[in-house]
Amino acid sequence: METDRIILGDCIEKLKSIPTGSVDMVFADPPYNLQLAKKHTLIRPDNTGLDPVDDYWDKFDNMADYDWFTQSWLAEVKRVLKPDGCVWVIGSYHNIYRVGSILQNLGFWILNDIIWVKTNPMPNFRGTRFANAHETMLWCSKSRKAKYTFNYEAMKSLNDGLQMRSDWLLPLCKGGERIRGEDGKSVHSTQKPEELLYRVILANTKPGDVVLDPFFGSGTTGAVAKALGRRYIGIEREPKYVKAASKRIAAVKKGDNISIMEKREFVRVPFGDLVAAGVIPAGTMLCDARGKFSAEVRADGSLVSGDVSGSVHQVPAVLQKLPSCNGWSYWFVANAKGELVSIDELRQGYIKEKIK
Questions:
Q1: CA dist., res. 18 & res. 3, Å (int)
Q2: pLDDT tens digit string along 257-300?
């Protein structure tokens, strides 16, 4: 199957040309059915005009037509997905509940709803409603039994070592990232930020996987997929969007050897293993970075400091009168040159040798 390409045409028809079970992940940013015709001119506080999203591709005669459209393209998405593939669909309150219902009717299994909280949302200029400051993404596996890819450790690492939550605080696409035409205006009215797609693609794919976007627009999915070393297929009906996306993606450097931390690579090593292996032998004296406290390593991997004994984490917590302490970052040991080396550094060296 040919990848790294944009297919010009209607998404429902063009999806039929993609082989069954050939796609690893789908990201879809379909029309939201906002129904915002220009009946009124929207005015910012500085009296400048604001154009609403009123493109013709976002207009449907009624909800039944929108439901038929949604059912049709999602049915094709399910067909082209691999058995363990997954789909992401983004939407607003205008459409996401109808999309979610149809996803479930088709047999998709909703894994999470991710809330994209916009750090710079558009105000509600008329003051008639709350400012709409978020969009919802539904992350679904092809079936309940699918063994979908989830790069948990990579997402945790991306979030400074904390478990990634389902609320993502990210700004709207703006500034230099916004794709603009020769007239200086935005090429696409609903361009999504690259950081949003970076998280989505990194979460559920491996290098070389195929990512499909049936509503390709300005090509954010393709640009991020290429940068992360994934393959992409885009479907887009508007020639002007295809032209802009092609130019944008051509300027992106393809990612090679993009590696991430996978769960099987995350090796937990008890302090006692380092003692038993002779990396930090029993009798070694540990100290903190300031030399205020010290402790002796015992044969069973525990520490003793005066009247205090316990684990590599418990002892420094008691000495500092703290509820807890990360011993790996707290303790140091002197090397042959008398230089202080973190025991975590010794642990990392041991892990590298162990997993060779």
A1: 10
A2: 566 766 555 567 889 889 988 899 999 999 999 999 999 999 88
Q: 66 to each of 59, 135, 315, how far by Cα in Å? A: 9, 19, 63
> 210-213 and 23-28 as β-strands: parallel, antiparallel, unpaired?
parallel
The DSSP secondary structure of 203-267, one letter per residue, reads HH--TT-EEEESS-TT-HHHHHHHHTT-EEEEEES-HHHHHHHHHHHHTSPPP-S-----GGG--
Q: From 28, 32, 81, 56, select the one nearest 234 (Cα to Cα).
A: 28
Q: Does residue 273 contact residue 281 with C-beta atoms inside 8 Å?
A: no
**Tokens read off for 313:** 């984490």
Could you read off the pLDDT of 10-32 as tens digits, one per residue?
Answer: 999 999 999 999 999 999 999 98
Task: Spell out the residues 6+ positions from residue 66 whose beta carbon is closer than 8 angstroms to its own.
Answer: 31, 33, 60, 95, 98
DSSP 156: H
- Asked if 213 and 6 count as a contact pair (C-beta separation under 8 A), the reply is no
Length of the chain: 356
Q: Which backbone phi and psi does 102 adopt, to 5 degrees?
A: -70, -40
Q: How many CB atoms lie under 10 A from the CB of residue 207?
A: 14
Reference 32, options 64, 60, 4; nearest CA is 60
How many angstroms separate the CA atoms of 200 and 67, rounded? Answer: 25
315 and 303 Cβ atoms separated by less than 8 Å: yes
Measured between alpha carbons, how far is 327 from 314 in angstroms, rounded to an integer?
A: 8
> What is the torsional sign of CA 236, 240, 246, 251?
negative
Q: What is the distance between the alpha carbons of residues 281 and 258, in angstroms, rounded to a whole number?
A: 37
The pTM of this model reads 0.70
